[in-house]
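pasting for the record
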Amino acid sequence: MTQGQKFQHGDHVKILAEMPPWKSHFTCDEEAVVIASYYEQFGGGDSQKSSYSIHVKGEGEVSWYDDDDLTLEEEKGDIKWIFE
């Protein structure tokens, strides 16, 4: 995990129940697993405020959710549930 990042690969997170209007097309109120931050995948940018690619149960991989869009449910927990 890069210094300053809130989440790391494998963390179980919950997406906010309601997104701001400019993110109305984003999935809300679902559980997900963090795949990686933008910084980890592509380098450059701001490593202190990250956006993330996540795997949403029943939907698959989606991007770019900011730190503030997600809350930690469990650090690097058992992620098999997301693929069931």
